[in-house]
Amino acid sequence: MTTSVSTYTVFQGYQRLASGTLPEVTPVYKDALKATTADAVLIFDDQTGRSIDIDLRHTDRSLPIHNSLNVNDGAAVAVQSEAAHEPHEPVSRGRGRPKLGVIAREVTLLPRHWEWLSAQPGGASVALRKLVESARLGSANRDARRHAQERAYHFMLALGGDLPGYEEATRALFAGDLTALEQHIAGWPDDVRLHALKLAATA
After folding, report:
1. What is the pLDDT of residues 132-179, one digit of tens each?
2. Segment 109-140, tens digit of pLDDT
3. Residues facing 11 on adjacent strands
4. pTM of the entire predicted model
5. Distance in angstroms (rounded) separating the CA atoms of residues 134 and 197
6. How far is 90 from 24, CA to CA, in rounded Å?
7. Among residues 146, 141, 152, which one has the least CA distance to residue 181?
8. Would you give the distance in Å from CA 137 to the centre of its chain?
9. Which residue, of 28, 49, 85, 186, is most buried by count of CB atoms within 10 Å of its CB?
10. What is d(CA 60, CA 106) in angstroms, rounded to the nearest whole number?
11. Alpha-helix runs per DSSP H in the chain
């Protein structure tokens, strides 16, 4: 599952109520909280699969907050205000080329590694950047698969932890066997099953 816009999904019990951007799903979330029902109302971040809390006191912005934080009245506004008025220290420019956002870090290698890097066109820095970029691109598919597994797992744990076949479904998820995953959750409520499969997909 790929998306360029952060999306969220609201569940009441095992029923999916809405999916979309935070401003789109917040009214549905608020109405569900007011309903007289024993079913829990949860809003999930589709990028992580985790349930989140939102600050309903700022309904025009619907600010997401971490579950572990205790936000006091006006805290979000106060932080924003302080940041806006914080003085910026002057930036002094030295001689030479601009750094272009490059951050110096320490790298420990054996002497033969440094000798090889120094012999490459452009020197050690250029060679290292090429090696890292090549490794990053080569692992893109693997990283995407791991991210999909993690977000599906967090969602399944929240809503499917007590459903039949959960343990088997989790093992199939991390084994990368989506066919087996679908089989193990075939008996789950439709909305939960379909959303779990959507989060588990990498494309």
Report:
1. 877 776 666 778 889 999 999 999 999 999 999 999 999 999 999 999
2. 888 888 888 888 888 888 888 888 777 766 66
3. 16, 42
4. 0.62
5. 31
6. 41
7. 152
8. 20
9. 49
10. 45
11. 22-34, 75-85, 111-118, 123-138, 140-160, 166-174, 178-184, 190-200
